[in-house]
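To whoever is on call:

I kicked off a structure prediction for a single chain this morning and the downstream step that reads the tokens threw a length-mismatch warning. I double-checked the sequence; it's 145 residues and nothing unusual in it as far as I can see. Pasting both halves so you can look.
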Amino acid sequence: MTTDPTPLVPDPMEFTSPDRERERTLFRIDGEDFYALKPKGGQMLRLGIEAAAIQQRTGGTGDVDLSDALIIDGFMDTCFEPETTDRLRERLEDPDDNFDIDTLMEVMQALERAWGRRPTGRSGGSSQRRPRSGRTSTARARSKA
């Protein structure tokens, strides 16, 4: 008797990403209105890690190095509407404007707090926490059979 060496493969699981509209957040600097767009979960994860690294390195002083500047620039491209990004870059480069990196970092931190570092939109029921049963999982030794 011969057996078929090809295992049975079930139909592939298929998923569809839900449509999401990014939350638009108004903020003001020196009386001027700007808009930020809440990043989706994957972007927020990366941005949160990068922002924490800057905060740890600089202590919030605004003294940034090249890698920090690239992270801040990436945040601006990801989270600000294009007109906001253009205007803030213009202000940063204007030697007569008091707006500088320290204020921009305050804005970034305030936006992260406002967004709660949560992804845009609600995902399905799998993200809901199950009530704790009081028991914790522990590794069990394998039995020798």
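Update from on-call: the warning came from a stale cache, not from the record. Cleared it. Sanity check on the structure: The CA atoms of residues 43 and 57 lie 21 Å apart.
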